[in-house]
Amino acid sequence: MTASTRRVALVTGAGRGIGRASAIAEFRDVFWDETLELNLTAPYLLSKAALPHMREQGWGRIVTVASINGRIPSPFSGAYVASKHGVIGLMRVLALEHASEGITVNCVCPGPVRTRVNDARIAFDAQRLGRTTEDYEQGLTPIGGRLEPEDIAPMVVYLASDAARMITGQAYNVDGGVNMA
């Protein structure tokens, strides 16, 4: 395959979590700005940069890792929740604008995933609710416990493939049953 016939798939997955959990009224404005910049503006800019080649080729896949918090809010994480709601909306607009060009745009919305950042959130919520971390974590999903990072990859790979050619503008939950809507 030559450089001129390569197909382009863009997967954006960087994100900033809650940092120090606090109510919106106590947010540091710089934290708000940085969170939206990484979680929302970066996927916008990366998509904008990839689209010319996708349009030229008549094929492209954009898959953005959003969050279950892009569908349902959680307290003390306003910047994160707002940015993930925003990225789902952004990807749906891109899907509408480029569907006729062979470009699909979708999101994956993970539930609670075992990461260093999510560890801090779990500890915060468990303490806030007067529960042990282990007990709280076990009840996070109907399946029980948290997802592992590798639980997310198969959906991302599928959405970036030819097999997903008729799927666009969707936000798929990979969340252990947290949101069954």
CATH architecture: 3-Layer(aba) Sandwich
Radius of gyration, taken over Cα atoms and rounded to an integer in Å:
17 Å
Shape assignment: globular
From the N-terminal CA to the C-terminal CA, the straight-line distance is 41 Å
How much β-strand is present in the residues? 5-15%
Short overview:
With 181 residues, this protein is α/β, with parallel strands linked by helices. It has five helices and four strands.
Question: Describe it for me?
Answer:
The chain has 181 residues and is α/β, with parallel strands linked by helices. The chain has a single domain (8-111, 147-174), classed as NAD(P)-binding Rossmann-like Domain (Rossmann fold), CATH 3.40.50. The protein contains five helices and four strands, in the order E-H-E-H-E-H-H-H-E. The chain has helices at 29-57, 78-98, 116-128, 133-138, 153-159; strands spanning 9-12, 60-65, 103-110, 171-174. The protein has a four-stranded parallel beta sheet, with helices on both faces. Strand 2 (60-65), helix 2 (78-98) and strand 3 (103-110) form a beta-alpha-beta unit. The longest helix is centred in the N-terminal third of the chain and has 29 residues, at 29-57. The radius of gyration is 17 Å and the shape is globular. The model has no long low-confidence stretch (mean pLDDT 93).
Name the descriptors.
Rossmann fold, 181 residues, 5 helices, four-stranded parallel sheet, alpha/beta, single chain, 4 strands
Topology of this protein?
Blueprint: E1 9-12, H1 29-57, E2 60-65, H2 78-98, E3 103-110, H3 116-128, H4 133-138, H5 153-159, E4 171-174
Parallel strand pairs: 1-2, 2-3, 3-4
